[in-house]
Design brief:
- With 120 residues, the protein is of the alpha/beta class.
- It has a single domain, classed as Response regulator (Rossmann fold, 3-Layer(aba) Sandwich).
- The protein is built from 4 helices and 5 strands; from the N terminus they run βαβαβαββα.
- α1 links the parallel β1 and β2.
- α2 packs parallel to α3.
- The protein starts with 5 loop residues before the first strand and ends with a helix.
Length: 120
C-alpha cells in the first residue's frame, strides 16, 4: 500500500464516516473527514485528495455532485461510492465510478476495495 495517499471520507452518518476513516488511517492512509458534501468540497481544496470515499445520498450536495465537482479539479481522482442503494439503482453516468461498496460492508471489504482502487 502507498502510505502517502490522501483520502477524503465524506458521509453524513458520523458512525460510518468514523469507521471508514479509522480503518483507513490504521492502514497508513492520510485521512480527512467531512460530514457533508459542501464540507467535503472545502476540505478537498486544502487536501488535494487521491481518493474520495463518499456516500451517494446526502442532503444538500450529494456524493455524485461532489465527485463531479472534484473531478474537474483533480482529473486523476479515484472515487469509491458507498451507499445503501442497490448497485443496479446507481446512475450509469456517475463520473469516476471505479467502485461501489454497498452498505452495510465489513472493514475487510472496505480495505480490500480501497487497495484495489489505489493500485489502479
Amino acid at each position: 500500500m502507498e502510505q502517502h495517499l490522501r483520502v477524503l471520507v465524506v458521509d453524513d452518518d458520523a458512525q460510518i464516516r468514523v469507521l471508514i476513516a479509522t480503518a483507513l488511517a490504521a492502514r497508513g492512509y492520510a485521512v480527512t473527514q467531512a460530514g457533508d458534501g459542501m464540507a467535503g468540497l472545502a476540505a478537498a481544496m486544502v487536501l488535494s485528495p487521491d481518493l474520495l470515499v463518499t456516500d451517494l445520498d446526502m442532503p444538500g450536495l450529494d456524493g455524485r455532485d461532489l465527485a463531479e465537482r472534484l473531478a474537474t479539479h483533480y482529473p486523476g481522482l479515484r472515487v469509491l461510492f458507498v451507499s445503501g442503494r442497490e448497485a443496479g439503482a446507481l446512475p450509469e453516468d456517475v463520473p469516476g465510478l471505479c467502485h461501489f461498496l454497498p452498505k452495510p460492508f465489513s472493514v475487510a471489504d472496505l480495505v480490500r476495495t480501497v487497495a484495489t482502487l489505489t493500485s489502479c
